[in-house]
Design goal:
431 residues, 26 helices
Length: 431
């Protein structure tokens, strides 16, 4: 496989014929170079890798038919600019990848005195390679410059805007050259689907960028943001995410492990997280002692062994619900606890007592798989839509896409008249 010829405007070093030169005048030089190139491939590989190999020989080896020979020149830091430019257009993407990585590694030293001309050549070639059709070539450059503070800004912006995740992700996540304005622009028009996730993992992510990610309908990006201990997240933003977290179990662990949690945040989390995470939350040493005590009380209640089943589980559930109501403890949190434990009968009884209806009314809504009916009963009980989603999933066995969600602002999605009708229908249809 033979690489494409070097561009005509790039003059070869003294004594080396241009690929376009023909005729007797070039024959003595060509002959001299050909005598220096051994026929054995392994010998040519060693020659291509040699730091002391003549410039003209390296140029000849950059056109060698053997890819291993061209690869040795691509790795050679002593290769002349003309050879690098030639190899950057090699037909084999492995060769282009090697020369791309080599030239990217040279960037930090390009500002040194006396190397400006060579630096321009390196940047010119890299700018061409950043547009290479092969992802592995572009990714090789991104991997080298991802944390480089001296990399050309234009090069970094090109890589960050790449549509291939292996190219863009390292730069989006780590490059110190990307500004806050750059990150916001990339979030506004993401080049690839995982752009927000990569940015959410950046060390020291500023509040304004964290706010933008939190406002996006991207659960994976929010999870990455919450799992980033160095991301600056405003208290109000964290509270808003906790309010949404009931529908996003993957957020629970990162929320419990945030470096700083307010008492309000810890109390809200204790109502939605699984027992193992509640145990982790109650073990934190940075919370107010009163909050810690309450969390441990909640944990102990969850860990209590279930009561021995009686001949009438429904009657027992109803008795427990009435007992909690008599002690003014039948609140939304009590119903959520029953839902999280998967206690269908208790959740049914609690909702029935709170809504002042017979258990059969709640059971009828569940058997009809009526999301509207259950939402209406939650409304009548004086609870919020935060409880309606989990109840629809537990009692009516509705799939996530079938669950009736809250209206904007957390309001009920049905009118008061429609919810009254639903309750009347469920009450009358069982008579």
């Amino acid at each position: 496989m033979t690489a494409a010829p070097a561009p005509a405007e790039q003059a070869p070093p003294p004594g080396v014929p241009s690929p376009g030169i023909q005729g007797p005048a070039s024959l003595p030089v060509l002959g001299a170079i050909s005598r220096l190139v051994p026929p054995d491939e392994s010998a040519r590989v060693r020659l291509g890798a040699g730091k002391a190999t003549q410039v003209g020989v390296l140029l000849a080896l950059a056109r060698d038919e053997a890819v291993t020979v061209r690869a040795s020149v691509a790795l050679n830091q002593a290769a002349p600019p003309a050879a690098n430019a030639l190899l950057a257009r090699d037909l084999d993407e492995r060769v282009r990848t090697l020369v791309a990585r080599k030239l990217a590694l040279l960037l930090p030293g390009m500002a040194a005195s006396g190397r400006a001309r060579i630096g321009e050549h390196v940047i010119d070639v890299l700018e061409g390679l950043v547009s290479d059709e092969a992802v592995r070539v572009r990714a090789a450059i991104a991997d080298v410059v991802k944390e480089m503070a001296t990399a050309p800004r234009a090069l970094i912006l090109r890589l960050a805007a790449d549509t291939a995740l292996p190219v863009a992700e390292p730069v989006l996540r780590l490059s110190p050259i990307l500004t806050q304005a750059d990150l916001l622009a990339l979030l506004a028009a993401p080049p690839c689907p995982a752009t927000a996730v990569a940015i959410a993992r950046r060390p020291g992510l500023p509040e304004v960028v964290a706010d933008r990610i939190a406002a996006m309908a991207d659960s994976a990006a929010v999870e990455a943001l919450l799992a980033n201990p160095t991301a600056a997240i405003r208290e109000a933003t964290l509270d808003a995410l906790i309010a949404e977290a009931a529908d996003h179990p993957s957020w629970h662990g990162p929320l419990v492990r945030r470096p700083r949690l307010t008492a309000r945040a810890a109390a809200a989390l204790s109502e939605i997280v699984a027992t193992v995470l509640l145990e982790e939350l109650s073990a934190r040493a940075d919370l107010d002692p009163a909050i810690t005590a309450d969390l441990r009380h909640r944990l102990a209640a969850r860990l209590m062994p279930p009561p021995v089943a009686s001949a009438s589980p429904a009657a027992d559930a109803l008795a427990e619900a009435r007992h909690l109501a008599a002690r003014s403890r039948l609140d939304e949190g009590a119903v959520l606890d029953a839902v999280r434990r998967g206690e269908t009968r208790l959740a049914t009884a609690l909702l029935a007592v709170a809504a002042s209806v017979e258990m059969t009314v709640v059971e009828r809504a569940a058997s009809l798989r009526s999301g509207k009916g259950l939402v209406s009963l939650v409304w009548k009980a004086g609870f919020t839509m935060r409880l309606a989603g989990p109840l629809q999933t537990l009692l009516a066995r509705l799939a996530p896409e079938a669950v009736l969600r809250a209206a904007p602002g957390g309001d009920f999605p049905l009118s008061s008249e429609e919810m009254r009708w639903q309750i009347e229908f469920l009450s009358v249809s069982g008579r």
